[in-house]
């Protein structure tokens, strides 16, 4: 097959027309703006949204940010996009992780005074010429401010990286996620381009050269689970909670008609109890018994952290639920860790413990819309597929999964795009 301009001719550099022949793609599109015709409208939207930024608060800020991203994508050429994906994203990740490990951001963020590369090298113990190259890239990518030749100041992002739960995100991803994601194209090619269905046979095992499930792999190094939990904690910061006013009608759906002989809320797989403590803080008027359930090693830590009126109980959610007839069995980001067959086991165990006409299952997870999904949710979906053989689910997929366990979805409460919903279920 002949090679022309770096491409094989035929289908490799074109698409099929109505006759089955390839229509060549004009390579000049690679150096033209992706959608220059959309720029005027986007500029109008940005100007309008910018006027109301301080009035409308967080929601308007997110809409403005989406419009700015759309403008950037419209102005960017395909060649620039290719280089951004291939060059800048892996290298800025590496530069940030290096900075976290070196303590660079802590030194830079001691105050807002400009600091030279030489000063930063002296304070961190790094070789000056080496560090200046790293700083140059961090500045070029907006992670820090370049305010003069080899002179830098911290951005708010750089300052935030000095807080451990935020800084831990980068070594966490390197520890147990990124190699699996990078191995994913190889894994699916080998497996016929089908999604994995077994948590012990995913790209994660291929990328990290292990036979262990993700959670087993975390246990091989004491730093891994700490960084992972810190990263998850940081991920949830600043996002609307179902316990906030106007999200889920707590009084109407939980407190009303409460039978005090059984627990109000059982947090299944609830880690060290942060969700239960948040609920009690935000709804002190709702009285009832609270139960936290997780594996023994987690509960041992939780007993030190949670208030004494929260019962911390060892429980494996793949086994029979020991608490019968609770008002609500609650799970936060549990089912997205498991493929459908495992989720059915978890939900069935809950269904068998429920009191008909009274008990609920509350699932706090993402519901992917049919269109205009948020990039955070689609990113997480690919990570879950790569690492757990699981997924973030659409509304149709949630209905099918819940119904397979003898339950039905009564309501899905959603605050805004890209935020976990609360899926309220009852016995079918």
TrEMBL record:
- Keyword S-adenosyl-L-methionine (UniProt): yes
UniProt xrefs under Pfam families = Dimerisation, Methyltransf_2
Source domain of life is Eukaryota
**GO molecular function, a single term:** O-methyltransferase activity
| Occurrences of domain O-methyltransferase dimerisation (ranges) | 91-162
Which region ranges are annotated with the description Disordered? 1-21
Secretion signal, residue range per the UniProt entry: none
Which residues are in coiled coils?
Answer: none
Ordered alphabetically, the record's keywords are: Methyltransferase, S-adenosyl-L-methionine, Transferase
Q: Where do the O-methyltransferase C-terminal domain residues begin and end?
A: 263-407
Q: Which GO terms describe its biological process?
A: methylation
Q: Does the keyword Transferase apply?
A: yes
Q: What is this protein called?
A: Uncharacterized protein
Provide the species name: Talaromyces pinophilus
């Amino acid at each position: 097959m002949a090679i022309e301009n770096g491409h094989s001719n035929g289908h490799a550099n074109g698409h099929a027309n109505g006759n089955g022949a390839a229509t060549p793609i004009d390579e000049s599109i690679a150096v033209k703006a992706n959608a220059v015709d959309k720029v005027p409208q986007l500029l109008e939207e940005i100007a309008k949204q910018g006027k109301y930024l301080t009035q409308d608060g967080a929601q308007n800020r997110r809409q403005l940010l989406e419009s700015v991203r759309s403008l950037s994508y419209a102005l960017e050429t395909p060649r620039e996009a290719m280089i951004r994906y291939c060059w800048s994203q892996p290298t800025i990740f590496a530069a940030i992780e290096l900075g976290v490990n070196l303590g660079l951001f802590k030194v830079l963020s001691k105050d807002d005074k400009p600091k030279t590369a030489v000063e930063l090298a002296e304070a961190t113990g790094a070789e000056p010429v080496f560090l200046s190259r790293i700083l140059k890239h961090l500045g070029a990518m907006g992670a820090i401010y370049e305010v003069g030749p080899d002179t830098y100041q911290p951005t708010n992002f750089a300052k935030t990286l000095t807080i451990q739960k935020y800084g831990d995100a980068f070594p966490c991803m390197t520890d147990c996620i990124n190699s699996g994601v990078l191995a994913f194209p190889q894994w699916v090619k080998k497996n016929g381009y089908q999604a994995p269905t077994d948590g012990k046979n995913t790209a994660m095992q291929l990328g990290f050269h292990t036979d262990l499930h993700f959670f087993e792999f975390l246990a091989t190094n004491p730093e891994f689970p700490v960084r992972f939990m810190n990263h998850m904690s940081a991920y949830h910061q600043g996002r609307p909670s179902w316990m906030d006013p106007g999200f889920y009608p707590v009084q109407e759906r939980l407190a009303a008609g409460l039978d005090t002989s059984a627990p109000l809320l059982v947090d299944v797989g609830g880690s060290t109890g942060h969700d239960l403590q948040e609920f009690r803080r935000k709804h002190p008027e709702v009285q009832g018994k609270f139960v936290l359930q997780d594996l023994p090693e987690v509960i041992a830590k939780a007993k030190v952290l949670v208030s004494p009126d929260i019962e911390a109980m060892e429980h494996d959610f793949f086994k029979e639920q020991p608490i019968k007839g609770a008002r609500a069995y609650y799970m936060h980001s549990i089912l997205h860790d498991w493929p459908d067959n495992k989720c059915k086991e978890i939900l069935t165990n809950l269904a068998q413990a429920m009191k008909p006409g009274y008990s609920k299952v509350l699932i706090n997870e993402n519901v992917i819309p049919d269109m205009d999904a948020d990039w955070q949710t689609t990113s997480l979906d690919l990570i879950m597929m790569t690492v757990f053989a699981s997924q973030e689910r659409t509304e149709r997929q949630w209905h099918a999964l819940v119904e397979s366990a003898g339950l039905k979805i009564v309501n899905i409460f959603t605050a805004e795009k890209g935020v976990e919903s609360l899926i309220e279920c009852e016995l079918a």
